[in-house]
Amino acid sequence: MALEEAGDAAEVHRVFEEMPIVMYAMAGPDHRIVAANAVARAISGRPGQVGRTVAEVFPGALTQQILEVYDRVYRTGVAQPALEWRLQVEREDGRREEKYWDFVVSPRFDESGAVIGLTQYSVEVTGRVREREAERQRAELAERRYARARDVVVALQLELLPGGMPVLPRARAAAGYLPAEADTAAGGDWFDALALSDGRLALILGDVAGHGVAASATMGQLRAVVQDRLLDGGDIAAALAAADRLAGRLPAA
After folding, report:
1. In this model, does residue 159 exceed pLDDT 80?
2. Where are the alpha helices (H) located in 54-175, listed in sequence order?
């Protein structure tokens, strides 16, 4: 009756053979292979698997914890899945290939409920794992490049800002540059404090729209013009007019 429910024996055998995943059936506590479909035989590269134990067909299983999984499922009667298990497969010619697999090992029971063997089906996911690793490496490379570029722009920004405040007998000046976010550390903001020849202290705050090298470079040009005009004569209107004329010629301004 069970055979009728499963279908014609030849048809079941054909379907088992044509399944596009690795399929094994094993018997006994030594995990002797009693069935292996075509994909399993082809991927292993080892003839004559049926009738031999897993340890005989795949000696590397002893050192890659595969037999431990089989033993645990056989002992407990509880199926165990494994995701992206890294295995080194040794071919008949001695070549070793590193592959990744998703697999499930399940117990086989007799009529009394005792475990008599195991079944295993596996799907190779090497491509998925390697693509994810490649994506991670690309992301890390992009992050390193971004960090280097950001460091360059931040260094430029700091070079363009004054290194200190003037020390005067009748005034104390202090300043700090605190960006709101790390990504806006470099941009068009600037400040300055200039001791003018007539004793006045000129305090300057400026802001060029945008962030990055273009904004910092534009800021540097405007700052230099304003500073030059103020130190030359102390005329605030002339300094602003000169900055305005320059801004008209700078697209970024």
Report:
1. no
2. 54-57, 66-76, 126-160
